[in-house]
């Protein structure tokens, strides 16, 4: 956990999940900061409290429930004009008692898929991304023709449970890539899978109106000013300067690489697990660990504060 600045307000936040997979939201009341916005319940961590202790206390006071089990989801440092906060977000999957409003605040259960339409404070938006994103991403490797590309993507979906695929094919021309990307996206079960276009070539590819989800290389990240008009955007980051650029753009998540040595980028110096943890502690968006990782590393990546891992070898052609 990062060291908090003296003027930073440390807040424990609970994502309470019901048996139907819905999450609980509460509405900020008149007189509160950002009144009228919906938020995930929780409150300030008092001196001497752990995050878990603060979360249990706040949820009992606000909702009348006793937390039985919670797991870390994401930490979000965020600066408002009037204050700086650190949101320590935990998913609460088991609790006793019946949820009720003990402070007069409106409550609502909302499906995770519908959270994008809710009016949240800016600092809460990365929580929505973290809830909607998977813990693994398949980056495509080499393939022998479109049929092989599609077959390997289906393997990644069905065998490795990858619901997000980044289509990477730097050996194609820009025109070939766009045609192949659209064919791939249209051939997969799009209600279950997101396919990101890897904009390897130049910002020209970003002008294609058919693209909705795009991945920016660290090079292109420096050449793009805004997330729009895309629905989803990710970015490759190797340092804090690139992270800040990505966050200012409003990206949905970033990749941090390379955590370990990787065969796909043999000349890239590994940064290690400690560097990943330090990077995640400063990130206000979900982070995927990348570089020499497989499913056995997901738990360690999450322990460092990451959303999960991204990989080629672990999910491609196996």
Describe the structure.
With 318 residues, the protein is of the alpha/beta class. The chain has 2 domains: 8-123, Nucleoside Triphosphate Pyrophosphohydrolase (Alpha-Beta Complex); 136-311, Alpha-Beta Barrel (TIM Barrel), CATH 3.20.20.70. 25% of the residues lie in helices and 27% in strands. An 8-stranded parallel beta barrel has the order 8-9-10-11-12-13-14-15, surrounded by 4 helices. A 4-stranded mixed β-sheet has the order 4-1-6-5, with helices on both faces. Strands 3-2-7 form a 3-stranded antiparallel β-sheet, with no helix packed on it. It has helices spanning 51-63, 125-132, 146-158, 174-187, 218-221, 240-249, 272-282, 298-303, and strands at residues 8-16, 22-27, 38-39, 42-44, 66-79, 84-96, 107-111, 136-139, 164-167, 194-198, 213-216, 232-237, 253-256, 287-290, 308-311.
Report a brief summary of the structure.
By secondary structure, the chain is of the alpha/beta class. It has 8 helices and 15 strands.
Poorly predicted regions are none
Name given to the CATH homologous superfamily of the largest domain:
Aldolase class I
Report the mean per-residue pLDDT as an integer.
92
Query: Mind summarizing the main beta sheet?
Result: 8 strands, parallel, barrel
The number of helical segments is 8
Radius of gyration: 20 Å
